[in-house]
Design goal:
The complex is a heterodimer of chains A (114) and B (116). With 114 residues, chain A is mostly beta strands. Chain A is built from no helices and eleven strands. In chain A, strands 2, 4, 5, 6, 9, 10 and 11 form a seven-stranded mixed beta sheet that branches. Chain A has a four-stranded antiparallel beta sheet with strand order 1-3-8-7, with no helix packed on it. The model of chain A has no long low-confidence stretch (mean pLDDT 94). Helix content of chain B is 0%, strand content 53%. Chain B has 116 residues and is mostly beta strands. In chain B, 39% of the residues are buried. Chain B contains no helices and eleven strands. The chains are: A mainly beta (114), B mainly beta (116). At the A-B interface, strand 5, strand 6, strand 9 and strand 10 of A face strand 4, strand 5 and strand 10 of B.
Chain lengths: 114, 116
């Protein structure tokens, strides 16, 4: 158990819909990351937050947005969903988000868009 | 820009044989290197990491990796494979500075199969 909690574990939704994925980081970790894992793209970095502020942005679509709240939990919002958005979405956390820090991953949220 | 190349999307070994998973990185600044393992239907678990200091890094479950700057490599090895090692392995790189500060860039992964 990494200490990173993600909900829901599985989600099936229709095209055009909007979903919210939730993440609680490890106790004491200030930095949260979101990654997308799919068969064709592999593991892709989406976005990183540190103590409530956006720190780095990767290949995140404009239809997707995220935020980190004062209690440090984070949400990833996916809207106008397309079939190609079906993937495993990981949340991860680390202490201060520094480059040598270990990043701990949750078990992921499986999103299926039908 | 930093990148990671894992040579071989699938590696198959016999139980008890040497495991060698290859990883080459590209980074314009000193890298921080990681190996993660993903078991079916689970998240990624850190095996080991290199930040600074000793270039031979020992990790969990008997795995180790050696940072070779001249070869830009960070290959993962285990002397004797066990059935429980069957999983997908990811090499990753991060570095300090710029807009990539702290984020991990992953390779495409190598699926390890262990035969009895």
């Amino acid at each position: 158990d990494s200490g990173v909690t993600q909900t829901p574990k599985h989600l099936i939704t229709a095209t055009g819909q909007r979903v919210t994925l939730r993440c609680s980081p490890r106790s004491g970790d200030l930095s949260v990351y979101w990654y997308q894992q799919s068969l064709d793209q592999g593991l892709q970095f989406l976005i990183q937050y540190y103590n409530g502020e956006e720190r780095a942005k990767g290949n995140i679509l404009e239809r997707f947005s995220a935020q980190q709240f004062p209690d440090l939990h984070s949400e990833l919002n996916l809207s106008s969903l397309e079939l190609g958005d079906s993937a495993l979405y990981f949340c991860a956390s680390s202490g201060d988000g520094g480059p040598g820090n270990t990043i701990y991953f949750g078990e992921g949220s499986w999103l299926t868009v039908v | 820009a930093q990148s990671v190349t894992q040579l071989g999307s699938h590696v198959s070994v016999s139980e008890g044989a040497l495991v060698l998973l290859r990883c080459n990185y590209s980074s314009s600044v000193p890298p921080y290197l990681f190996w993660y393992v993903q078991y079916p239907n689970q998240g990624l678990q850190l095996l080991l990491k290199y930040t600074t200091g000793a270039t031979l890094v020992k990790g969990i479950n008997g795995f180790e990796a050696e940072f070779k700057k001249s070869e830009t490599s960070f290959h993962l090895t285990k002397p004797s494979a066990h059935m429980s090692d069957a999983a997908e392995y990811f090499c990753a790189v991060s570095h300090a500075g710029g807009t990539s500060y702290g984020k991990l860039t992953f390779g495409q992964g190598t699926i390890l199969t262990v035969h009895p």
